[in-house]
Amino acid sequence: MMGGTQGGMGKALAVVAGALLFSISTAQADDDLVAAQKQFVTSCGTCHVVDPAAGPRQGPNLAGLVGRKAGTYPGYKYSAALANAGFTWDADNLEKWITNAQAFRPGSTMPYRQADPAKRARIIAYLKSLSVQK
Ligand code: HEC
């Protein structure tokens, strides 16, 4: 009985595996974004939210961050290091900032550094995706 069904099982499994591979590749972009969001929540979520309707936490709200002038979210009390930064957030300065915030802007009150380039890339991709949707 078992012997007779094994060949068919093998074929069925191969078809399922093929279908899975196909859906994985078409869903890759979505999966990347889900991974990116998870990374953001894990690494930054204790201190930051991105929902424009939510208030600040320990750090300022990051809604629409990419393209926003540094140190300008209404109602948040920034350090002079950020209030006087004078630049607009983009992928480049975000990369430097989350690599080591206090080395990039000495005097900043954000105690964060991330040594893993893959994690930094995911976080920045997530923040960029939010600004495109806005
Ligand atoms: C322990 C809390 C904490 C964590 C974790 C944290 N931040 Fe911050 N963040 C802050 C604080 C506090 C400030 C305000 C810094 C200042 O005024 O010098 C800030 C400011 C910022 C700003 C400046 C925003 C603006 O309006 O100019 C950005 C961008 C930012 N954080 C991104 C991130 C990202 C991305 C992560 C995760 C990789 C992260 N932060 C993790 C506390 C945190």
TrEMBL record:
Keyword terms: Electron transport, Heme, Iron, Metal-binding, Signal, Transport
Would you indicate the residue range of the signal peptide?
1-29
Cytochrome c domain spans which residues?
13-131
This one is known as C-type cytochrome
Q: From which source organism is this entry?
A: Labrys neptuniae
From which lineage does this chain's organism come?
Bacteria, Pseudomonadati, Pseudomonadota, Alphaproteobacteria, Hyphomicrobiales
